[in-house]
Amino acid sequence: MTFLLVLQILLFLSLDKCQDFQEIELGINNVNLTTEGNLIANLYQVILNSTNEPPAIRVSVDSLAATIKYPFTMTVVRGKTVHNVALPRIQSHQGKEFQYWFASDTLCDEDRSAEQLSQPVQISIASSLPSLFNLRVKSVNNFIIGNKTFKSKGSPSEPRYYMYTFPDDVDKVDIRVTSPSEICGKIVARRVNCPLFDASGLLEQSETFFYQSFTTFAGFSLKKSVIGRQFHLAFTVHPDETLCGTPDNFFDIPNNPARIKLAVISVTPVKDNLWLPLFPILLYSISMSTVIMLTYLKYKWLDRRENNEPNILDGTDSEGNVLVDKIWLFDKPSMIVSHKEYQKLKLVKDSKYFNFLFFQIFGSILPSLTTLFDKQKTSNNLNFCYLNFLCSLEFLCFKSFNSMTSASSLAVIGVLNLIIVFREKIFSFKIPRLPTTHGLQQRDAPKVVCFLGLVSMGILWTITNNCPHRTTIHLDMYTSSWIFYAAFMWIYSKRHGVRKWQQFFIIAVSSIYGCLTLAENMFNVNSVSRWVVKILFSLTAISSTVYFCYQYFYERPSGLQGNQWITPPFESPQLYLSDANGIYNPLRSKVVLIVLLICLSVVCAILPLLTSESASNSAIICLGRGQIGIYLVYYAVQKCRFERQSFTLFYKICCTLIFIVFMLMECLNRYLANFMLTYNVLLTPAKSRQLNMDCVLPGIDLNDLRHYSCAVDCFLFICLMDFIDSNIKDVPKKHIFVF
């Protein structure tokens, strides 16, 4: 076909100038024209008005008789501009070939002088066999983009492009494209350089260009210093939906086989507002100042109640001033185990848990830094970064300064609370931490693991929010699972103590979830592989929950011997001499929590298996948050059941307020995450941009508010955990229930 095009050009140039051209009018559709065959050229000419020359010329042609073996060729000459078209027009897309028997191209004039634009349009058409065709030459009056919005229609074989020139006082423009149709299209901005499209209607590559795939919305900003004083804005339609995903409106495609797409395009000059970045900084400063003040007050409160014990060196075993309900359960014949039997004589060093930081640095933080280099390699591909293009604040070298600022708030929460935990070493004072006979034994090690997770998540979010992409979703799932299970173990360790299996449990489960998410979202897995990943997730979710429940009910307290504790299933009872104190038993109400946790894990394990579209990462989030919520509510109900006599009015007011605000913030966070997303990396880039929203405040979008609500939510959870057991600081450990 290339040979035929070259031959056609040579024939056209060799024709005697005196040869007659058939005159056709501009804008008139010439139907039922015929070629003679044998590559004999039909010559046509359109004389333009030299006093009012059109800014650009578009030539449309169609011929149903064209075949690959016997093609239909057209050469268009306008002064120095030469353009070729061959039918059928063959386009390659994502490994597939598509054929079209019609084409509509706009001539790309490198020379924009008045002399060039007034030149007549000369057309040579030939085919191997006699063919019937239609021909139209029209003026593109809106070719020069102004400040007004304009409409454009295109299809895969009918690309459209326009030209914009920066005014002298404009350095930046916002490009916005909307469409009522969900047919997959592409918008391309390229420095002025001809030709723009090849003979098949595909875009010619250039050194300086930017592009986005879109369905109903596309938008980005361009600077004169990057794109040049003039640029072409091309609008094309993809042959299929491979790059954009299945449309929500399934009738949009069958009812439009030609894939004609309407687009509304605007190019708006904007001025960089140097004050706009101050709004995210101001909101960040106010939020973090409030958190720092509340953290300081909590720090002073904790210093007055170290170990939850008013007299920490008091070794007496007196009953204290506060009693709890149902103390008789600790006596024979029930022998319910108390917190005293779970108290370890050897305290865990909190600094030892900084070893967990190794897993966070090499498991999430360092891998996320690679996205910065990936973004540089694909800087012209505006599909790579999943941004809210309607409210992304470009500042310094950052693509989304507002999102990065709000995302770092979670790291600040973690750092501030780590300072509280290690305040003794930081501020060079030491409070004795000896096992006491009253209140819960202080155990900060689980808190350290949880706070390290918050710091890592804050750093990870700060890095990835500059250019969100699905390549880091497994890192997000890994760190999120870490935080969920660290918080879960924090609740567990308050009454049960700290054991080594908890460390390995957090590392193992979060790592498995991260790997499964990587396999599901990063690799091009087929349907069978995807089902294997989902089955592995289901097995992990159920088995990890069952293992925790087993440990929760049957783990022997550190203060008891084997003959003093119930025999776990699958283990044969050991022979001991009879013990005078009898055998201790766990609370029977623990079975309620076990049933709830297992039911939740089964539901979350089954959900991804029900439909092929369901992703395991959603089930991971649901499982992690659900387990924490169930355990926290169960913990509060058990406190009301067994310790309500120890509740003071101040305790009731504080716990109720913290719990209510915590639940409200959690609901707000879930609402923003599920129903008000401004982008979604699990979708295609085009589908994700359909979620883009305008700023709710100057330089602040709903995604930023979600970051702040998440940080506040975590802070309230920490305050609740630190305060929830302050009511039993005077209760002897032997009368504290373990649930």
Describe the structure.
With 739 residues, the chain is α+β, with helices and mostly antiparallel strands. It has three domains: 140 residues, Jelly Rolls; 131 residues, Jelly Rolls (Sandwich), CATH 2.60.120; 435 residues, no CATH class. A five-stranded mixed beta sheet has the order 1-3-10-5-6, with helices on one face. The protein has a four-stranded antiparallel beta sheet with strand order 2-11-4-9, with no helix packed on it. The longest helix is centred in the last third of the chain and has 28 residues. The chain starts with a helix and ends in a 16-residue tail after the last helix. The N terminus is likely disordered. One of its GO terms (biological process) is RNA transport. This is SID1 transmembrane family member 1. It is found in: Membrane. It is a multi-pass membrane protein.
By DSSP, the count of extended strands is 19
Shape: elongated
The helix count comes to 17
Portion of residues within helices: 25-40%
Strand content: 15-25%
**Average pLDDT taken over every residue:** 83
Count of folded domains = 3
Radius of gyration, in angstroms, nearest whole number: 35 Å
For the report, how would you describe the main beta sheet? 5 strands, mixed
Q: List segments where confidence is low: pLDDT < 50 over at least 5 consecutive residues.
A: 1-18, 307-320
Assembly classification: single chain
Structural class: alpha+beta
Strand order of the largest sheet: 1-3-10-5-6
